[in-house]
Each structure stands twice: as C-alpha cells, then as structure tokens.
C-alpha cells in the first residue's frame, strides 16, 4: 500500500494549542507514504438529534471526509482526565444517524499532548473506550503519552530529537497497521447500514 490518506482530528482548538503544534511537527517529519489532512472540528455545531437527518453543510462535508479517508488520527488534550467535549461532539456526529456509523472498521491511532505529568493518559484511555464501541481498529502499540510543557521552541517546533524518533516509530507501526486493513481481501471502506426501523434508540 502506498500513500495512506489520514484524516486528523485535533481536540485542542485554542490558538496556541500544544496538540496543534504536535500535528504541525508530525507534518514536518515528511513521513513517506502517509498523507495527512485535518478537519477543523470547532466548525461543527453541537450535535442534536433534531439536526441529524438533515445536517448543516459543515457536517455533510465532515462526513464526506470520513468516508474518503483510509485512516483516522486523533490528537487529544486532556480535560479533567478525559478528552475534550469538542472531540466527543465530532465523534458523535460521525456515528449518527443510528445504523450509519462512519467510524465502523476504520483504522485509527491516538496521540496526545498536555503540560501534565501523565501526558494525556486519562484522555487517551477514555477515548479508546469510545472508539472500541464504534468498532474502529485502534492501534494498540506503541502508546504515546506526551508531557509537552517545554517541548516546543518559540516557532512551535519540537525541541527534543528523542520525541521525533518516537513519533517516527509510532508512524511506522501505524502505517503497517493501516496496510493490514487495506489488503484486496479486506475492504476498509465498508461500513454497515441498518435500517433506522431496527434502532432500539428511536
Ligand atoms: C477544562 C480543562 C481541564 C484540564 N484538565 C487537565 C487534566 O486532567 N490533565 C492534564 O494534564 N491537563 C489538563 N488541563 C490542561 C490542558 O491539558 C492544557 O491546557 C493543554 O494545553 C490543552 O491542550 P491544547 O494546548 O492542545 O489546547 C486542563 C485544561 C482545561 C481547560
């Protein structure tokens, strides 16, 4: 497999977000065979079941981007030992309406940065729980918990070469992981679509 398309969702939406800096640093690694794209999830409205059958344009284009991508990269800050609501909101949009879960069978990986000592451990494990329920194929190892307090220079570039090395290893494994699900006998674009009348939730 060459050139896996990776849609990246970043849970940090502030101007100086550490997680945005982490994503910028990943792009600067110029990783062979990985083509990164991102979607600004702050542009999505709050999820409401009143909107899900006829969603606004921002949601329709978000869903299109999920359908087209080979894999997802989720980069999350830690908020109160979990991941931010803005990221959960985006995940909820992609999972609805019932029976049209666009995350189904998509390969995914999680990264995260915070200025705290556990470096998003709590956030990542809550996020894993949600992605497992949505039946995404989430990379198990390596894990990447990042205390990013003094990790970037004034231009937002990663200072420590060891971190770059760890990221290179991470993406080598992620590429292998994505390739497993992109064999001719395994259609990663497939997703289920039950009839809405089957839903236990309506
Ligand atoms: C509501 C809130 C809760 C937070 N809770 C945690 C936490 O549980 N653990 C942690 O390490 N940092 C916590 N932080 C600090 C964030 O990790 C820090 O602000 C980080 O820079 C946010 O990510 P960003 O820079 O990508 O926006 C919290 C920040 C906010 C605003």
3D architecture notes:
- It is a single chain.
- The chain is of the alpha/beta class and 202 residues long.
- The chain has one domain (4-47, 57-198): Flavodoxin domain (Rossmann fold).
- The protein has five helices and six strands, in the order βαβαβαβαββα.
- It has helices at residues 18-28, 57-68, 85-94, 121-133, 161-180; strands spanning 4-10, 34-39, 71-76, 107-114, 137-138, 145-147.
- Strands 1, 2, 3, 4, 5 and 6 form a six-stranded parallel beta sheet that branches.
- Helix 4 links the parallel strand 4 and strand 5 (137-138).
- The longest helix is centred in the last third of the chain and has 20 residues, at 161-180.
- The model is unreliable at 187-197 (pLDDT under 50).
- The structure holds flavin mononucleotide.
- Flavin mononucleotide (FMN) binds at residues 12, 14, 17-19, 77-81, 114-116.
- Mind telling me the C-alpha Rg? 17 Å
Q: CATH topology, what is it called?
A: Rossmann fold
Q: Please, what is the CATH homologous superfamily? A: Flavodoxin domain
Provide the domain count: 1
List low-pLDDT spans.
187-197
Helix content: 25-40%
Question: What's the N-to-C terminus distance?
Answer: 41 Å
